[in-house]
Amino acid sequence: MNKLAVFDFDSTLMDGETIEFFAETIGIRDCVAKITKEAMEGRLDFFESLTKRVALLKGVSVSLIDDISHNLPYMPGAAETIKSLKSLGYTVVCFSGGFRNATSYAKNILGYDAEFANILHSKDGILTGLVGGEMMFSDSKGKMLERLQSILKVSKNDTIAVGDGANDLSMFKHAGTRVAFCAKEIVKKNADIIIEEKNLTAILDNLK
After folding, report:
1. How far apart are CA 32 and CA 48, in angstroms?
2. Which end of the chain has fewer CB atoms < 10 Å from its terminal CB, N or C?
3. Any idea which residues carry the catalytic annotation?
4. Separation between Cα atoms, residue 7 and residue 162, nearest integer Å
5. How much is the pTM?
């Protein structure tokens, strides 16, 4: 029987928000963090928040973005948890409202099978402030999860979804096991398992 585990990236597989690491380096952290907080708490539409934040990155070099993306701090227990889930027969996938600069690089380090994220548009090695991709909207994760379940022939009951922010709720609707990891209150209210410690291996304890 096929099984599927889907993880959010920012503040779940990775300890922090990717775009805030970008913002810290270029000196706009407070502005970006405010927009991120409103979005993750469900007070601002995800698409609107994403495009607003990315617009602030206009003019930044892709090489700087890649350098930051390749030096992000991963969540304790991330690689171990993914390895354990795969040994139990799960296909493990990362869904991120963030960016492939980070998720593609992390794939081989953390060991997940595939990743779906957004792409920062650039010209001549410089960000234009525009963004496109697979995870642009508040319901993108849920819709992508439905597609994967159909392709992989995985039932809702055999699906685990792990996340922390409001844009993870759409995938919770299609998962039999919903894990709120160091999450916002709106996510905890819709979860089966609530983990407050920054160690993803706690998920495994709850699955036994």
Report:
1. 13
2. C
3. 8, 10
4. 5
5. 0.94
How many alpha carbons fall within 13 Å on the CB side of residue 144? 26
At 153, list the tokens.
């022939």
Helix (H) or strand (E) holding 144, with range, is helix 140-152
Q: Reduced to 3 states, what is the DSSP secondary structure of residue 43? A: coil
Which structural domains are found in the chain, ordered by start?
Answer: 3-207 (3.40.50.1000)
Please list, in sequence order, all residues whose beta carbon lies within 8 angstroms of the beta carbon of residue 45, skipping any fewer than 6 positions away.
39, 138
Residue whose entry in the numeric block shows the structure tokens 């994403």: 50
Structure tokens at 167: 């844009």
Sequence-distant (6+) residues with CB within 8 A of 189 are none
> What is the token pair recorded at 138?
């508040």
Find out whether 178 and 5 touch, Cβ atoms under 8 Å.
no
Give the span between the Cα atoms of 62 and 68, in whole angstroms: 10
Q: Report the distance separating Cα 171 and Cα 93, nearest Å.
A: 12
Pair 183, 200: CB distance under 8 Å: no
Written as tens digits, the pLDDT of the chain (208 aa) is 799 999 999 999 999 999 999 999 999 988 888 887 887 777 888 899 999 999 999 999 999 999 999 999 999 999 999 999 999 999 999 999 999 999 999 999 999 999 999 999 999 999 999 999 999 999 999 999 999 999 999 999 999 999 998 889 999 999 999 999 999 898 999 999 999 999 999 999 888 6
